């Protein structure tokens, strides 16, 4: 094989790796679709699933229009530079290096179009667009059965294509000031994705209010059960599969590289992701199972809670650290979710407990369990304060405040929540004009008639018909 | 500090382990023990928890049985390791015998489970036979 062919092979392997990792990440969305659809009531199942599909569209396009540019343009702002764009003049080496990437991220850039000179910008865009969609999907589950589709689309664009992307630019970009100024380390996006989206969701839920019937007259929560718990469980299994791909896509391997690195340029192995994700999943399920006393919904969510709790330091943790930390995070998750419910916040799928709380925990844990790691020349070592300050910025400034403010504005404009009669009738009919299970109601009617017939046959008012005996 | 590295060059060019507490095996051992306890707790809880309620059975005896079994297995593993360390001259034969032991251990466990179930079956069969005989006798009478 000649040198040119070898060089191309390196490019093709990188291109293929990120392409297929991103395709597998789409399983997260198949999972969210099933998970949230199963968690809703029958009258809302289609609307819930369609809302999920629309996330792909709204965030996918918005990420092309400005999200990808935000990721590359915001790393220096506001600490060591401005927002980078066509107006920027490169004055030092850092800005010159950053600008080379910024110029490939404009929607009109030839790097994103079919271009034999650039195989990699497009697959990185694809991978990041999938990260963005995942982040926005975390919001969708918590709001089911009462949010207007338009309001959800606006909020998903703000979260998925802007606030999360700013967090990633600051905390997950090699030029980002969380990293360069604090030594922040968040390999699997515990705070950058999950912390931001979990706290954004909390802010929205405060303005959205609970579903009708969720609380009694005294304010005590009443259970609104999922209409299809098995579907919900299958959905979470798909999310787990997608998560392996999500974490694998956090690895950097480019043509000419002689080793795998994190996005911060530190060494890592794909094998450690395989081991640690598996252990976090297993340990998380156990933690939630024990803590929730075998509640099926919390038990399976525990797998996700475990992975998120260890995500930030997964490239560094020894497997025993992963087992203990994932157990701890998943053990506390049901308690957090129930506390949130008790104080009057109706989070339909426990998104804050899983993503907000475990994301916060996972990011802070690096400051305790992986402290003292040197990263790059001139970059501070990992430590608790270096994790705490950026994490708080992620969850409060980029998560809670934008979520609360956006939903408050939509509420004031009467654009946030569906009218009461639509909520009672169900959003499938109100929004889409069709039922998710048209035969279901017929079966229900038939079985009601059968029961009535049986009752009448027993009392002697009706001759028993064939098939009534069973 | 949980990092085994003191400067960026050492970490960025590391060949070999890079994991947390890599320079402190006692913490890894401690965490391994904690992990094992969590796992045993899970097995114990899987008997104990039923729809959020405690069953009337006594789970303490069961948990003691599980812990005793785990300790006995750990003891076997430890003894074989100690033998290997203290008898380097007979290393080859020891490796063969320990391989044999490793191969034999699961087989022994399977054998124990199988014989246990066989005994149970025999007991059940005897009970069935007894019931059949009693019924026959009753019919004959």
From TrEMBL, chain A:
Stretches assigned to coiled coil: none
Record's GO cellular component terms: plasma membrane
UniProt xrefs under Pfam families: Ammonium_transp
Keywords noted in UniProt: Membrane, Transmembrane, Transmembrane helix
Lipid metabolism keyword on record: no
Record-annotated Ammonium transporter AmtB-like domain positions: 19-437
Location(s), subcellular: Membrane
Main location as per UniProt: membrane
One annotated GO biological process: ammonium homeostasis
Bilayer topology: Multi-pass membrane protein
Membrane-crossing residue ranges in chain numbering: 17-38, 50-71, 123-144, 151-172, 184-208, 229-257, 269-290, 297-314, 320-340, 352-373, 385-410
Keyword Transport appears in the UniProt entry: no
Any one GO molecular-function label of the UniProt entry: ammonium channel activity
PANTHER family tied to this protein: AMMONIUM TRANSPORTER (PTHR11730), RH50, ISOFORM D (PTHR11730:SF60)
Name under which the protein is recorded: Ammonium transporter
Native source species: Chroogloeocystis siderophila 5.2 s.c.1
From TrEMBL, chain B:
Native organism: Chroogloeocystis siderophila 5.2 s.c.1
Transmembrane portions of the chain: 27-47, 59-78, 103-120
Name this polypeptide is given: Uncharacterized protein
Alphabetically ordered keywords of this record: Membrane, Transmembrane, Transmembrane helix
Lineage: Bacteria, Bacillati, Cyanobacteriota, Cyanophyceae, Oscillatoriophycideae
């Amino acid at each position: 094989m000649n040198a040119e062919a070898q060089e191309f092979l390196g490019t093709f392997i990188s291109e293929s790796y990120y392409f297929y990792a991103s395709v597998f990440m789409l399983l997260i969305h198949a999972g969210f679709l099933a998970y949230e659809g199963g968690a809703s009531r029958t009258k809302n199942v289609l609307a819930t699933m369609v809302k999920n599909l629309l996330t792909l569209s709204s965030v996918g396009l918005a990420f092309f229009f400005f999200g990808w540019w935000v990721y590359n343009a915001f790393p220096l702002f506001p600490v060591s530079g401005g927002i980078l764009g066509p107006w920027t003049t490169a004055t030092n080496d850092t800005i010159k290096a950053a600008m080379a990437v910024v110029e490939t991220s404009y929607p009109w850039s030839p790097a994103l179009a079919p271009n034999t000179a650039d195989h990699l910008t497009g697959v990185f865009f694809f991978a990041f667009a999938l990260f963005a969609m995942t982040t926005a999907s975390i919001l969708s589950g918590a709001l089911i059965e009462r949010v207007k589709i338009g309001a959800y689309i606006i909020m998903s664009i703000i979260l998925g294509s802007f606030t999360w992307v700013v967090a990633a630019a600051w905390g997950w970009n090699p030029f980002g000031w969380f990293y360069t100024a604090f030594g922040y380390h968040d390999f699997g996006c515990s705070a950058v994705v999950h912390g931001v989206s979990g706290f954004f969701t909390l802010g929205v839920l405060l303005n959205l209010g609970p579903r009708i019937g969720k609380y009694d007259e005294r304010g005590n929560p009443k259970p609104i059960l999922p209409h299809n718990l098995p579907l919900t469980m299958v959905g979470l299994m798909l999310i787990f599969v997608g998560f392996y791909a999500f974490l694998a896509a956090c690895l950097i391997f480019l043509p000419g590289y002689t080793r795998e690195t994190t996005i911060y340029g530190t060494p890592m192995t794909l094998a450690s992701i395989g081991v640690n994700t598996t252990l976090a999943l297993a340990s998380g399920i156990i933690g939630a199972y024990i803590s929730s006393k075998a509640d099926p919904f919390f038990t399976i969510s525990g797998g996700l809670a475990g992975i998120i709790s260890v995500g930030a330091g997964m490239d560094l943790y020894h497997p025993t650290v992963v087992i203990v930390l994932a157990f701890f995070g998943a053990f506390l998750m049901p308690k957090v979710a129930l506390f949130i419910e008790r104080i009057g916040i109706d989070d339909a799928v426990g998104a804050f407990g899983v993503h907000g709380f475990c994301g916060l925990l996972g990011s802070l844990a690096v400051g305790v369990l992986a402290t003292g790691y040197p990263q790059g020349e001139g970059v501070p070592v990992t430590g608790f304060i270096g994790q705490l300050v950026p994490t708080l910025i992620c969850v409060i400034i980029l998560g809670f405040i934008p979520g609360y403010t956006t939903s408050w504005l939509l509420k004031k404009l009467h654009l946030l929540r569906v009218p009461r009669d639509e909520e009672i009738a169900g959003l499938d009919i109100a929004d889409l004009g069709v039922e998710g299970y048209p035969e279901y109601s017929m079966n229900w009617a038939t079985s009601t008639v059968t029961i009535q017939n049986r009752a009448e046959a027993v009392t002697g008012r009706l001759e028993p018909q064939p098939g009534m005996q069973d | 500090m949980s990092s085994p590295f003191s400067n960026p060059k050492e970490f960025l060019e590391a060949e070999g382990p890079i994991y947390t507490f890599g320079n402190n095996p006692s913490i890894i051992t401690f965490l391994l023990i904690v992990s094992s306890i969590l796992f045993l707790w899970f097995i114990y809880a899987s008997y104990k928890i039923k729809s959020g309620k405690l069953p009337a059975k006594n789970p303490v005896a069961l948990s003691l049985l599980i812990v005793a079994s785990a300790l006995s297995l750990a003891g076997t593993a430890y003894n074989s390791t100690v033998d290997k360390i203290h008898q380097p001259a007979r290393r080859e034969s020891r490796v063969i015998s320990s391989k044999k032991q490793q191969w034999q251990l699961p087989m022994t466990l399977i054998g124990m489970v199988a014989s246990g179930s066989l005994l149970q079956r025999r007991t059940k069969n005897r009970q069935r036979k007894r019931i059949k005989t009693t019924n026959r006798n009753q019919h004959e009478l």
